[in-house]
Amino acid sequence: MSSLYERLGGQEGLDKAVDIFYRKVLMDDRISQFFEDTDMDVQAAKQKAFLTMVTGGPNNYTGKNMRDGHTDMVKRGLNDSHVDAVVELLVETLREVGAPEADIQTVVSVCEGARNDVLNRDAAPAQAPAAS
Amino acid sequence: MANIIELAGEKYAVGENETVLDALLREGISVPNSCRAGACQCCMMRAVEGDVPVKAQVGLKPSLKEQGYFLSCSCQPTTDMKLEAPGEGLHYETQIIALEDVGAAVMRVHLEMPIDYTYRPGQFLTLFSPDGVARSYSLASLPAEDVLELHIRRIPGGRMSTYIFEQAQVGDTVKIGTPAGDCFYTDGDLQQPMLLVGTGTGLAPLWGIIRDALGRGHTGQMVLFHGALNPDGLYHRNELAALAGEFANFQYCPCVMNGGEDDTTLNVGAIDKIVLSTYPSLKGWRGFLCGNPDLVKMLKKKFFLAGMDMKSIYADAFIPSPQPAEPATV
Predict the structure, then answer these.
(1) Rounded to an integer, what distance in angstroms lies between the CA atom of residue B141 and that of residue B262?
(2) Has the ipTM of the complex gone over 0.85?
């Protein structure tokens, strides 16, 4: 099978992971303030879209989606420490649903790739010459 | 051959490998959408005619599936389909056939059920007074009962409740809209334990849902917590106690904030604390929440954190209508 998304059981497997992940997010004092007033059904659907994307499931997300979707949170103080917390909880979640370590590392690198878009900032200065 | 979708009186052809969402966007119809992969559920629509492909309903709650809701980004039609436009829906003329003040400032209103009216107990409808005031109320009745039962609470200065309490007569003609909402019992696990919490007239949908579930043979434990500020705010106590006497798997727990210390059948305190201290672990349970919007929102989160699956939480918050400014005279 080609992606972690499929290995976790597709849509249904993801539902289980979303419940675990979202519960962790709401109970984590470092980041729960960002989710206090949101509609839970809408938020769970967004979490599922996020998990679908990072596990390599079908998605059409773009950097612009990730940017626009977090602009308000950045205004409310979203920073690297919050992204770190989300990644940490995501890793815990994936371990709980039995994802292989290699897949988890892939997910972490996908998250890192989205970090600048999520935080609405330009890419960090290139440390290596740009490829293109 | 291309299948045709109909929306708000217009017909559109859906191409060979196209989805409903693609076709509508191509035609310049605005449909909210985001992931386009069946995950975010932004693009949900409802089919009133035609077959809904299984793939287009993956991930939706059973109560939404049952009503024909689907994700337009994941829907390649296999037949022609007619879709419900936002705000569309029929209006029915009906008559008030009974009005009974049941205490707690609640009027139990019975309306004649229009012939082709279909609903699930726990759904709500919009009621239009003869003056054209529109308010939404939950259905407390069962379809087999042939009358529509609403519980209408008196709100000081409220236009609909003033009509119902002071002017309405048996025989008055009123209009109602089509039933809506996804807070109802769905078949599935008949042994699943169910926790139902409502405040005030949030009891109305729960009264329908409980009797619907029992009628469909639900054997799992069902616990109802009905809350009010004080004992005078509770109603239907005899009916609920009688139902609990009849069905061993149904339990009725009335709760009040104040008063009632001398009544041992009452739980006194904040309803959320009473519920969660009695049932701290809700893994595997199904939950129904109706009434005060702040309480519904809070309990939804607490149920989830206590282990209930997101998909197993059904909630209907009652949103109060803004009151008109005080008239200068009268």
Answers:
(1) 33
(2) no
